[in-house]
Design a protein that fits this description.
Helix content: 25-40%
Oligomer: single chain
Strand content: 25-35%
Order of helices and strands: EEEHEEEEEHEHEHEHEHEHEHHEHE
Shape: globular
């Protein structure tokens, strides 16, 4: 029987249990996927911790790639035997097989590696809507990207740089500076030893940045606001350090008529055309030289260690579990 990871309570990494379970029967509009690899995203950790509560017991993981072994869909886009990937669906990817809605599957072009897709499709789609729609980056913009050595940050920095922006990245320790500089950053701030907003002002001759892409949350929210130029935008798309504290909306006016948005993956990929548009944009960037470094690979039996490594900020780039 296929292996699957489940949790029966929220908590630390040890709450994850590896079981063998029969895969359920597929229904109309679904596909059975035999995984090649699945991505490990920080969202998985937050769901495991109960930050985003799920009905228990539950699986974990929202992204993966594999082969369609069974299909019940009227769509002509897909067929049994196709290599596909998916991202942003209900948890359950940490499994040798799983059933997914067929309309959330993206058929992989021949030049896109399944492991790369599993590791980074979630990150790549996120980068695509952040940089194209949430705040459309243009040549000449100055952007601040927090967690620049992480999965989304590594892609976002390169993408912004390729458009013609000046990219300032933050990282949690000195060891990650070289990674950020090699993946799109013009300048790197070590957030644990430097004052982010002060350094941004120094780097921009006092002006500030046009946009701050912030996936960290509580630890960086104030720094992001104070790093913005007049009428700049804070794109708060994650909270790996916890949710920011409530604040007076009047601060946006005081600091320069600022904008604040909180985009969600599910809202930007609600329709299949949008899902495919962002996916194809990401794949095209890869063809044009965007690097998707898989910093670390684990087996399903190593899932506890994988979560611990990500939580302790030992990882760089994308993380995958392979089968």
């Amino acid at each position: 029987m296929p292996k699957v990871v489940k949790i029966e309570s929220f908590g630390d990494a040890e709450v994850m249990q590896i079981r063998e379970e029969e895969c359920a029967q597929i229904e109309a509009g679904e596909a059975r996927i035999e995984h090649i690899a699945v991505g490990l995203n920080y969202l998985d950790i937050m769901q495991r911790q109960g930050h985003y509560p799920l009905p228990l017991p539950t699986g974990l993981g929202v992204a993966g790639s594999g082969v369609i072994r069974e299909l019940r869909s009227e769509s002509s886009e897909l067929a049994v035997g196709d290599l596909v990937a998916y991202a942003g669906i209900p948890p359950g990817s940490y499994a040798e097989q799983r059933i997914v809605p067929a309309d959330r599957l993206v058929k992989l072009p021949a030049d896109i590696e399944p492991t790369i897709a599993a590791a980074a499709l979630q990150h790549g789609i996120t980068a695509a809507f952040l940089i194209g729609d949430a705040f459309p980056v243009a040549p000449g913009h100055v952007v601040l990207v927090h967690a620049a050595a992480g999965g989304v940050g590594t892609i976002l920095c390169q993408w912004a740089k390729s458009i013609g922006a000046t990219v300032i990245g933050t990282v949690g320790n000195q060891e990650k500076v070289s990674h950020a500089l090699a993946h799109g950053c013009d300048h790197v701030i070590v957030s644990t030893v430097e004052n982010i907003a002060e350094r941004v002002r120094a780097l921009t001759a006092g002006r500030g940045v046009d946009v701050s892409y912030d996936s960290v949350g509580a630890d960086t929210f104030e720094s992001s606001l104070h790093s913005l130029a007049f009428r700049g935008m804070l794109v708060s798309f994650g909270s790996s350090s916890g949710d920011p504290s409530p604040f007076d909306i009047g601060e946006l006016a005081k600091l320069g008529s600022l904008y604040l948005t909180r985009p969600r993956f599910i809202h930007y990929t609600r329709t299949r055309p949008d899902l495919l548009r962002y996916s194809m944009a990401f794949f095209e960037r890869i063809r044009n030289g965007l690097k998707v470094p898989i910093g670390q690979t684990y087996t399903i039996d190593e899932v506890v260690r994988a979560h611990k490594d990500v939580e302790s900020r030992k990882t760089r780039g994308s993380t995958v579990i392979t089968f």
